[in-house]
Amino acid sequence: MVGLLDVSAGVFPRFRHSRMHVLAGVFPGTVTSLAAAASIVTGILMLALAHALKRGKRRAWRAAVVLLPVGAAIQVLHRHSFFGAAVSTALLALLIVHRGQFSALGDPRSRWRAVAAFIWLSALSVVLGLVIVSAHPETVMGDPNWALRFEHVIYGLFGFTGPVHYATDQANDVVAYSLGGLGFLTAFTTIYLALRPAHPLAHLTPTDEDRLRGLLERHGARDSLGHFALRRDKSVVFSPSGKAAVCYRVVCSVMLASGDPIGDVEAWPGAIERFMEEARAHAWIPAVMGCSETGGEVWTRETGLDALELGDEAIVDTASFTLTGRAMRNVRQMVKRIERAGYECRVRRVAELCEDERAVIREAADAWRGTDTERGFSMALGRFGDPADDDCVVVTAHDTAGEVRAVLHFVPWGADGMSLELMRRDRSADPGLNELLIVAALQQAPGLGVRRVSLNFAMFRSALARGERLGAGPVLRGWRGLLVFLSRWFQIESLYKFNEKFQPEWVPRFLIFRSSKDLPRIGFAAMQAEGFVTLALPAWVQRLLPPTPRLLRGSSPGRRPPKAADDHTVDAA
């Protein structure tokens, strides 16, 4: 309310002299027409602070404590409103008394915010500038068109005199100072966000990674997604006993975990409590993607969060897998056709590959990716051929010339299982290579000591399966129709149909969330984490900025995952 009143008082002269403006004088931060520029800037800062104060941010509380006495002083000096100053002082006292409610730390820093702030503030400045230039019709000399007014705004934002002139010095000063203040606010905020020290990226320290590997050796067979906790762009919190851990990444103020907690089930509540404490300390939205039914029960019981079935994971028992039978006829025919074309499959541990072979496969997989960024978060490791991952399994398809044309990469799932992490092929190769690779992996898995294989995750599989059955209701059919429509852009139905070929056992996975109103934000954060939505600066812009210090493997041993720095007041917008 204060922010809107300040902006209105600074932009519209009639508002400053209206009865509403007299009543608005009791609110902190409202200034007179003699300080219209300060009124607009203060109003914008108030609007930016509102969201941060709602989240209980400490930096926002500090900014409000500074702005309130400034607003009180302006009212006394310019409006002679001692009552408004008293209200400002009373609200300041309330903020100080209840300062314990504003303890949330800031979000991770990102230079993308500099670009976002520049675009947001520039657009706002131009729109408000046009309104300010047009808000004094009785004093404007001549009849300038919108092109001249726009030119005047652009000149004014840079502190120069534009082509629009006013009959009174007061109107001319109000417009000039207002545009100059908007331009200064935009430039200062952008420069500050671009040049301040960048916060380190989320990462696993070598010590954390070693502790997680120890937990996976003892309890890794419980969850097929456990090995993906070793992604080095995640942070981790451990239970007080050290027997369990939750790995996460913060995206758009969403604290996003994936899979079940790592470690002993009895120690899960301790790790979950640490996770929730971290979320409360930063006012982050807690969420968990792809946890099992057991994990969902523990999460909901310990935290009071809600659960939503997200989809199903396809798991194949290698001992019972066979290509015989009518149900496998299509896969059998496709595999035979690809084999007749001269393709050969090789199933090996990564430890069996020499460095040259690892480089060839890595470069081929990157070339076949099809997107500028690596996708995957909850079910992707994000690397290949690392010496720490020698126990992974790689399946390659080679043509008659011996060239690699397709690759599968599996990560360990306990001592007797593996989970699909990567599936890529040369787009110019014959279709059916993925089926050939999966069949080869399933047939040769027993020789590697693997008895169960986790394939792709099929989102909303149950809705797709039930929606096409006889007797499905209109709601279920409509939901399935929407999913089929979305499959044009996202692999929803195609992954379900592909996995169904291998007659797997479907195991449900769940999304854990706090409130239904958080679902859109969690969904957007998940799409960012998985790589479907990318918010990154262009390469040429990144080259102009100071280098971002990255934490490399082997640096800062034993260091805890970094705390996020306080956010700037404009960041909160």
Structure explained in plain terms:
The protein has 573 residues and is of the alpha+beta class. It contains 20 helices and twelve strands. Strands 1, 2, 3, 4, 5, 6, 7, 8, 9, 10, 11 and 12 form a twelve-stranded mixed beta sheet that branches. Strand 8 and strand 9 form a beta hairpin. Helix 1 (2-11) runs antiparallel to helix 4 (36-54). The longest helix is centred in the first third of the chain and has 27 residues, at 169-195.
For the terminal residues, how far apart are their CA atoms? 15 Å
Largest sheet: 12 strands, mixed
Unreliably modeled segments: 17-24, 29-34, 548-573
Helix percentage range: 40-55%
Structural class: alpha+beta
Oligomer: single chain
Q: What is the alpha-carbon Rg in Å?
A: 30 Å
The count of strands amounts to 12
Strand fraction band? Answer: 5-15%
Quote the average pLDDT: 80
SSE map:
Layout: H1 2-11, H2 13-16, H3 19-24, H4 36-54, H5 58-79, H6 82-97, H7 112-134, H8 146-157, H9 169-195, H10 206-219, E1 235-238, E2 244-251, E3 254-258, E4 262-263, H11 268-282, E5 285-291, H12 293-303, E6 306-317, H13 329-340, E7 344-349, H14 355-367, E8 393-398, E9 404-412, E10 417-425, H15 433-444, E11 452-459, H16 461-467, H17 474-486, H18 493-500, E12 505-513, H19 519-530, H20 539-544
Parallel strand pairs: 3-5, 10-11
Antiparallel strand pairs: 1-2, 2-3, 2-4, 5-12, 6-11, 6-12, 7-8, 8-9, 9-10
